[in-house]
Amino acid sequence: MSLNWWTIPTQLGVFKVNCKRLACLLVFTVSVCGSAPGMCPTTCICASDIISCTNKNFTRVPGNLYKYMKRLDLSYNRIGLLEPEWVPVLFEKLNTLIVNHNSISSIITGSFSTTPNLKYLDLSSNSLKTLGSPVFQELKALEVLLLYNNQITQIDSLAFGGLYNLQKLYLSYNSLLHFPLDLYVGKHKLTNLVLLDISFNHIQLVPIQRLSSVPAKQLSGIYLHGNPFYCDCVLYSMLIFWYQRHFSSVVDFKNEYSCLLQSDTRGHNKLPLLHDNFLNCSESTVNSSFQAFGFIYDAQVGDRLIVHCDSRISDAGTHFVWVSPDNRLLEPDRETNNFKVFPNGSLEITDAQMENSGLYSCTAINKKRLLNETIEVRINVSNFTVNRSHPHEAFNTAFTTLAACVASIILVLLYLYLTPCPCQCKAKKKKRKLNQSSAHSSILNSTMPQELPADEKKASTGKRVAFLEPVHEPKHSQNGKVKLFPNDSITTESILKTTRTKSDSDSVNSVFSDTPFMPPT
C-alpha cells in the first residue's frame, strides 16, 4: 500500500502530511464532538453565546445546551413550576435568563441553585400569586428582576432577602395591596435598589413618614402612578416635593397620578392628583412634608445643626459645595466661622444664630460621570424664650395647670350638690315677712301677745320687745280715729323676732321711731 504525502507550506517551514491519516483524524474529531453534550438543539437557535428556544412547548430547560452560553431565552413555553430540577445542568456563565409568557405559578426555594451568576432574570407575564421567603437567595449577583404582569397579591418580607446587588425591580400590573416597605427599611433592606416600579397595582396608602428617611437616590426611582390612592394632602405634598426635585417617576407620569374620595368606595370618579391643587391643601401641610424630607430645617439659637445634601449623585468621586444665603462658598475641609462641610456633603452649623436663617444651596458634582445636581434647603433659626435646658420647669407648669383644673371641678361639684334646698330658703323668707307684719301690728294693737312656740324660741337669738296699748273704743263713735279691725276682741302677735347681734337699743331704734311709746297708767 502506498502512502500519499502532501507538502503544506507554513510560516515555520514545510510539513509533510499523510492524507489518509488526516482524513481519519477529522472523522474521529467530528464523531466525538457530535456525540458530546453541549450542542445546540435542533429546535433552538444558537448564536455564539446566545440561545433562543422560544415557543417550543418546553416544560424545563434542555440538558444538552452549550455550557458556555450567557443568554438563554425560554419565553412562550409551557413551564409551570420552578423547582430545583428545572435546570438540570450547572450553567456558571449564564447571566441572562428570560422565562416570560409561560405558566409559572410557584417558585420553590433552590430553583436557581444551578444558575448562581444570573444578573438579569425575566419572570414577567406568568401566573405568580405569592412570593415566599427566600426564593431568590442563590442569586447574589442579580441586578435586574422583572415580575410585572403577574397576579402577585402578597410578598413575604424576606422574599428578596440576600439580593444586595439588586438595582431594578419591576412589580407593575400586579394585585399588590400594600407598599413593600421592607425593601427600604429594616434588617434586609436593599441599599442598591434605585428603581422600584409598583405602578398599576391596588395600593391605596403609602407610608410617607417612613419613606422620609429613604435617600433621594432611591426615592427618585419609585414609580407609583396608576394606583387607586385616596385623596390626601400629605400624599399630594410628597408628590409635589418629588416633582420639584425633578424625579422622573413623577415628571414623566404626571397625568397618570389620580385619587379617589373617601366617599367614593367603588372608584367611579378618579380625580387628577397633581393638577391645580383641587384638594385645597394648606401651606403648612405642604411645608411639613418638605420638612419631613429634609427640605426645611428648624433650629433654635445656639443649637448644633447638621444638614444633609440628599443628592441622587452619591457615587465615589462626587464633590459637594454649599452656598450660604449671603453667597459665601462653603467647601469640605475648610471651616468658615461656625460652618463645616463634611466629605459626604453634610453641612454642620456648630452654633446656630438668627442671621444663619435663609436658603442654602448644595451642589453635587461628579466629573467622571459628567453629572451635577443642585439642591436647595431652607433653614429657619428662631429665638425661643423658654429655656429648653430645664425640662422640669415645663413639667411644673403643666402640673400646676392640671391641679388648678381639678380644684375648679371640685368647687363646682361642691356648689352643685352641697347648697341648701330652695324650698327651705323660700320658707325662711316667708317667715321673715310674717315677722315684719307682726311687728307693725304689735305697735298698733294693745292686746297681750300669746307665748311663742318652743321651736320659735329656740330659733331666735335676739331680744323680744312687746308694746301693749289698751284699746278704749267708744260704742257709738270713733272720735276721729281709724278702726283697724272690724271685731272688738281681736288679738294680734306683738313679739318681734330678730337675729341681729346689736344692743337692745339699736334693735328698737332700727324698727320704731325715736319717740318712745309709754303705756297708760
UniProtKB/TrEMBL annotation:
Q: Indicate yes or no for the key word Transmembrane helix.
A: yes
Alphabetized SUPFAM superfamilies for the sequence: Immunoglobulin, L domain-like
Annotated membrane-spanning segments are 398-418
Entry keyword annotation includes Transmembrane: yes
Q: Which UniProt keywords apply?
A: Cell adhesion, Disulfide bond, Glycoprotein, Immunoglobulin domain, Leucine-rich repeat, Membrane, Repeat, Signal, Transmembrane, Transmembrane helix
The cellular location(s) given in this protein's UniProt record come to:
Membrane
Q: Which residues form a coiled coil?
A: none
Q: How does it sit in the membrane?
A: Single-pass type I membrane protein
Q: Which residues form the signal peptide?
A: 1-34
Q: Entry's Gene3D superfamilies?
A: Immunoglobulins, Ribonuclease Inhibitor
For biological process, the GO terms are: brain development; cell adhesion
Give the chief site where it resides.
Answer: membrane
* UniProt feature, compositional bias: Polar residues: 436-449, 488-498
The text of the family note is: Belongs to the immunoglobulin superfamily. AMIGO family.
- In its UniProt entry, what is this protein called? AMGO2 protein
List the source organism: Formicarius rufipectus
Name the lineage.
Eukaryota, Metazoa, Chordata, Craniata, Vertebrata
